[in-house]
Design brief:
The protein has 3 domains: about 70 residues, DnaJ domain (Helix Hairpins, Orthogonal Bundle); about 60 residues; about 140 residues, Sandwich (Immunoglobulin-like). By secondary structure, the chain is of the alpha+beta class. About 5% of the residues have low confidence. The two termini are about 45 Å apart.
Length: about 300
């Protein structure tokens, strides 16, 4: 297994967020090119590691993958076998089927219990097991929600943050929660070549799918999308302003770029080949109005 980001920062595996921040500050001072001209390459690796481990959501996803790789490496040493798929899509698929099998088992159990007369001991066991089952379900739901992609975290546009991090979406209360298509494996890569920061919206014919914020020269991979035509809208600009308003025909939206806000739209044709679509988000796409940017599509509520 290749070196981990923890090793890059000189930390033990699965170190805490505070330990990551302390280690980064120490190493950044030591290898910053302004202080140490020969430390440019080391400083780049340290910064890349900190971008993953310094963000709580991205650290959680990275730790989950690392645990799977450690288990896989241990299993291969014992008995060589088929490699384990540790992709983020595979983790979500396993969680989905685990919950499906659990619900199916509970339904079958309830059916058998309804067909048979219950004794006092059976009622006692039901009363004892119900709180445990509810706790397990809530725990699974909590783990699933915490494993969502960094390109679509839960942020309320009515209380838009004063600063945005890559992957955050400030208009979720307006467009709704992200939608994942578990029956397809289509992916697109959004590359911000605009020269400004952008906020992206991804729609299909059925409605809103995903949204995210991207700094200039960054990219984001959007997974589990339908194979039909996709529409990408994006707002470009700089200096995010949480208290600035955008007035639409129906309501006032809080939060926009303070400097040079512009709006664009791109159409991505259907793709069921499994080839990843690379989308360059630049000023070459048709420009649209702010009203069009916030117009909902399909079944979006």
């Amino acid at each position: 297994m290749k070196g981990t980001h923890y090793q890059t920062l000189g930390l033990p595996t699965f170190a805490s967020l505070n330990e990551v921040k302390q280690a980064y500050r120490k190493l950044a001072k030591q290898f910053h090119p302004d202080v140490n001209p020969s430390g440019k390459e080391a400083f780049t690796r340290i910064t890349a590691a900190y971008e993953i481990l310094g963000d709580a959501s991205r650290k959680y996803i990275y730790d989950s993958r690392l645990k799977q790789e450690l288990r896989q490496s241990h299993a291969i040493k014992k008995t060589p076998g088929k490699p384990v798929n540790t992709s983020e899509q595979e983790l979500r698929r396993r969680q989905y089927y685990q919950q499906h099998y659990k619900n199916h088992y509970q339904q079958q159990r309830q059916t058998r219990q309804q067909q048979q007369p219950k004794t006092y001991n059976e009622y006692k066991y039901i009363l004892f097991a119900t709180p445990i089952a509810v706790t397990l379900v809530l725990l699974i739901l909590s783990l699933y929600q915490n494993s969502t992609l960094p390109d679509s975290p839960v942020i309320n546009s009515a209380t838009a943050p004063h600063t945005l991090n890559n992957g955050e979406f400030p208009y979720q209360s307006y467009f709704g929660s992200p939608v994942y298509n578990t029956t397809t494996s289509r992916q697109i890569v959004l590359n911000n070549t605009n020269g400004q920061d952008i906020i992206c919206l991804v729609f299909s014919k059925q409605g809103f799918r995903r949204g995210c914020y991207l700094r200039q020269k960054y990219s984001a991979t959007i997974t589990q999308l339908p194979n039909d035509t996709l529409m990408i809208r994006y707002m470009s600009g700089s200096n995010w302003c949480a208290s600035c308003e955008i007035q639409t025909q129906n309501q006032t939206i809080m939060g926009r770029f303070k400097n040079q806000p512009r709006f664009f739209e791109a159409v991505i044709p259907p793709n069921s080949t499994g080839i990843i679509d690379n989308v360059l988000l630049s000023e070459t796409h048709p420009e649209i109005s702010s009203e069009s940017f916030f117009t909902k599509v399909g079944n979006t509520n």
